[in-house]
Amino acid sequence: MARDNNEGMFRGFLLGFLIGGALGAVFAMLFTPKSGKEMRSMIREKSAEAKDKASEYLAEAKTKTEEIIEKAKEEAEKIKKEVDELITTAKQKVDMVKEAVKSGIETYKEETKKTKG
Question: Is the pTM of this model over 0.70?
Answer without folding.
Answer: no
